[in-house]
Give the backbone structure.
Amino acid sequence: MTKYNKYLFLFVSALCILGWEACTQDRQPCLTPKIASLNIKSVRITSRIDTTPIDTALPAAFFVAMTAKGDKGVIYPPQSAFTISLSSVTDSCQWAVTADTAAGNKYDTLTFYYKRQLQFISNACGFAYFYDLSKVNTTHNFIDSLRVTNTSVTNNVNTNHLQVFIHPNFP
């Protein structure tokens, strides 16, 4: 083997080792939430005169996503903050909700209208849908009214989007 071939062999070997190390590096984990969540706060006002909203824990809230593939629900323990998701395949979705599973068929329907936006999060996380709320409709069995507090639904879990005002006479 000539001196030139030795150097060429060492150089190619070094490139192969460096190339192997570069190919076997672990990808950075995705530490950012990929799903945009709509955060709901249940509140009530004590009277029409004192309109200061007070956090109101619902006894056993039951949220049901109403989809073409069927209904899927989740029961929450007593609390006043809830998180739901919006559909990434349509520009609206419906959720049925009851304040207490023991309340029988006293459901309200929340209908959300929004625009979907595909957002790049990072190389590790890829893409996710974010939403811009345009309107929310509801029935009024135990829900008195609604207030949209933030129309931008992203993967920021600390943002409240909707206040649901419970009827003052609801137990």
Notes: The chain has a mean pLDDT of 83. The helical segments are 3-23. The longest helix spans residues 3-23.
